[in-house]
Amino acid sequence: MAQDDKIIEQIVDRYDADVGMLIPMMQDLQAECGYLPLEQLHSLAKQLSLPLSRLYAVATFYASFHLAPKGAHEVTLCVGTVCYLKGAPKISEAISREFHVETGGTTRDRLFTFQAVNCVGACAVAPVMIVDGKYYNGVTPASALEVLYGLGKNETSVEKDGET
After folding, report:
1. Where are the chain's structural domains?
2. Where are the beta strands (DSSP E) in 32-111?
3. Neighbours of 1 (CB within 10 A)
4. Which of 85, 98, 160, 96 shows the shortest CA–CA distance to 128?
5. What pTM does this model have?
6. Quick one: how many helices (H) and strands (E) in the chain?
7. Residue 107: closest CA among 118, 92, 96
8. Per-residue pLDDT tens for 111-128?
C-alpha cells in the first residue's frame, strides 16, 4: 500500500500536481500498474483534490484506459458487416465457449483479453481476427482456436473446457 502511495506521489510530482495534466498522469499510472486500479485512482484524486468521479469519467471516456487487468494477449475480432456475414458470430461463440470469456472480458488466468470491434477495414479477407497486432484473415472457429492455443502452448494455465 505504501509503495502504491509512493508511485502516485512520484507521478503527481512529475507533473507538479497540475490537474491539466490529469490524462498523462493516468497514462503513467496505467503504464506502471497495467491498468487503473480503483485504490490508486482514489489516491490520485485525493492528491489532486479532485472528485473520483472526474477521474472515472476520463477513464471511461478514453478507450485506451482500462479499469481491469488485461490479458497477456489481446484478441480482437472484427464483427463488421462483412465479417459478421462470413461467420464472426460463430468465431466469437467458439472463443467464448472454449476460453470461458465474454466479449470485452479477460480470461481468469489473464492470458487473453477478448474484444469485438465494428470494422478493421480488411473486408476483402473477412472474417478477420487480430491477436497482439497481427492480422489473421479468413478465420474460422477452428482456426481461431488453433491460433489462440498456439499462443498459450508455452503458458502454464490455458483453460480448455474448465480444465487447466
Report:
1. 2-61, 73-152
2. 73-78, 105-106
3. 7
4. 85
5. 0.69
6. 7, 5
7. 96
8. 999 999 999 999 999 999
